[in-house]
Amino acid sequence: MSANPVSHRANRRITISDVARAAGVSVATVSKVINGRDGIAAATSTRVMRVVDDLGYQSSLVAASMRRQRTQVIGVLVAEFEPFALQLLRGVSSALQDTEYDVLAYAGSVSAGVHTGWEKRSLSRLGGTLIDGAIIVTPTVALPDSPVPVVAIDPHTGPAGPATVDTDNLGGARAATDHLIALGHRRIGHVRGRSDLESAELREQGYREALETAGIRFDPTLVRDGGYRAAETTAAATALLDRADPPTAIFAANDLSAIETIRVAESRGLRVPDDLSVVGFDDVPEASSGVPALTTIRQSLPEMGSSAVHVLLSMLKGGPAEHIRLPIELVVRGSTAPPKE
User: Fold this and answer.
1) 253 contacts 228 by C-beta, under 8 angstroms
2) DSSP-assigned states of every residue in 251-272
C-alpha cells in the first residue's frame, strides 16, 4: 500500500492506477469492482473498496456514464439561486434520500450576457453525460427535444410540456384578495409578477376575479409591475403609495415583492398593518421571520420539489409524464388588518 495515502491524495487527484497499485491488483480488476461486475472474489472486492475509501478515489462521472449509460444524478436547473429555488431544492434533496440518485444543482443564467434559452443550453451541456434526468424551475420555453426526461416546475407557459408541477395560482390570488376584502378593504393594489410567466397572469386574474365577485370596480392604475423581484418592486410600491389616493391594502404576487412593499411603506412613515395591509404569495422562510410577519399564500415549495422528483423517477422507469397541480393555503399573520375608519 501507499506509505502515505493522505499526502498522496493532497498532492494530486487519485487515479484508478493508484488504486490498483495500492490494492495489488490490475486496473481491469479495479474497474470491475467499482462498476459492480461479476467474476471478482469477495475478498478481492473488499480489499479494493477499502483502498478506494482510504485514497478517496472517485471515478469520473462522465466516464462512468459512458460505461453504464446512467450517472445516477438528477439535475435541478434554475435560472438563479433565489429563495423560491432554494426551497424547491430542499424538497428535491429530501425526496432523493435513500435512492440511488445524487443531485446536481445548476444555475443557468447568472453569468454575463443574454440568457434567453438558458434551459436548452443547460440541458445540452448536462443531459446524457452528467445527469439522467432534469427538474427545471420556471423554464421560459417548452423542451420537447430534451436528451433526458424533464419535469418542469411552474413553467412560464403553463402545463404545455411533457411533465409539470405547479400550484393553484388563480385560487391562491383569489384567496389573498378575498382575505383583504373580508377585512373591509376596497382600494386594493396589486404588485404583479413577471409578464412572461403564466403564474403572474393567473395571480393577477385571481385578484381581478375576487374584486369583481365582491362588486368592486377594477382600477388598472392600482396595478404595477414588480417582476417578482425586490428591486423592481421598489418603484412599483413607491408609485402606489405616493398616489393622492393610495390603496389601503396591497396584494403582491410573491413574498419578495410583499416584503419590499412593507419596507417601502415603512420608509414613508406608514405602519403595517395599521396604515397599510400587505399580502404575499409563496411563504418563503423570510415571510414568517419579518416584523410584522407576512400574511401570505402558502404553496409548499419543498412539496413541489419532491413531487417533481417522484414524477421524474417514474419517467426514468418508463412511466408516463404527469401534470400535478398542488393546493394552496392562506396563512394569516401580522401584516393584515381592517382599514382605518
Assistant:
1) yes
2) EESSHHHHHHHHHHHHHTT--T
pTM, to two decimals: 0.72
Q: What is the 3-state secondary structure (H, E, C) of 177-200?
A: HHHHHHHCCCCEEEEECCCCCHHH
pLDDT of 242 reads 95
- ∠ CA 308-310-316, rounded to 5°: 100
When pLDDT is averaged across residues 42-50 and rounded to a whole number, the result is 86
- Burial zone of 155 (CB within 10 Å; 0-12 exposed, 13-18 middle, 19+ buried): buried
Rounded Cα distance between 324 and 330, Å, is 20
What's the sign of the alpha-carbon dihedral 273, 278, 283, 289? Answer: negative
Tens-digit pLDDT profile for residues 84-115: 888 899 999 999 988 889 898 888 765 544 45
**Gap between the Cα atoms of 50 and 129, Å rounded:** 28
Nearest to 24 by CA among 53, 3, 44, 38: 44
How many Cβ atoms from other residues are within 10 Å of residue 325's Cβ? Answer: 14
For the segment 202-259, what is each residue's pLDDT rounded down to a tens digit? 999 999 999 999 999 999 999 999 999 899 999 999 999 999 999 999 999 999 999 9
- CA-to-CA distance for 251 and 279, rounded, in angstroms? 5
The pLDDT of residue 158: 62
117: its cell numbers: 434559452
Q: Quick check: 150 and 123 in contact, CB under 8 A?
A: yes
d(CA 145, CA 87): 28
